[in-house]
Amino acid sequence: MSPPTRHAPGSDWTDPDCPVARALDLVGDKWSLLVVRDAMDGARSFTEFQRRTGIARNILTDRLRKLSERGLLTQRTAPTGRRQEYVLTDAGRDLFPVIVTLRQWGERNAFAPGEPRSTLVDQHGTPVPDLTPTGGDGTPLDAGTTRVRRTG
């Protein structure tokens, strides 16, 4: 399994010192995140990704290539031995809390009250509780209780 692609300082990063900007440079378009979401939900083949997302073949080809180059997906021979499949790497699986948090934000802000939507549940069928960042002492954190320490 190859590690994520690392860019040299001063390369094409949007904001070289910001982890949020670098993450968005790697996975910040909707198709990439939807491919990662579907990989987390068991999609493995090109056909499955296309069926689930409705993405055009050329765009899907590009996103699968980029996600593989960036170390978020890897290809392996499917158990049938007849074709290649895509699976998440450790770096791809590390996006799970990002996808969950984005989903939960969408549940709160992108749907009208009572509007039908899918629900993320655990292995027992229980809805996944809201993710909340906490400090070392367990206190909930938000934009008002944190700050960015700049480099340099």
TrEMBL record:
Q: Show where the HTH hxlR-type domain sits.
A: 18-114
Q: CDD domains of this UniProt entry?
A: HTH_ARSR
Q: Coiled coil: which residue ranges?
A: none
The record's annotation in SUPFAM superfamilies points to: Winged helix' DNA-binding domain
Top-rank taxon: Bacteria
**Keyword Transcription regulation in annotation:** yes
User: Which key words tag this protein in UniProt?
Assistant: DNA-binding, Plasmid, Transcription, Transcription regulation
Q: Which GO molecular function terms does the record list?
A: DNA binding
Transmembrane stretches in the record are: none
- Keyword rRNA-binding attached: no
InterPro entries named among the record's database cross-references: ArsR-like_HTH, HTH_HxlR, WH-like_DNA-bd_sf, WH_DNA-bd_sf
**Region spans: Disordered:** 111-152
The name of this protein is Transcriptional regulator
Organism, by scientific name, is Streptomyces clavuligerus
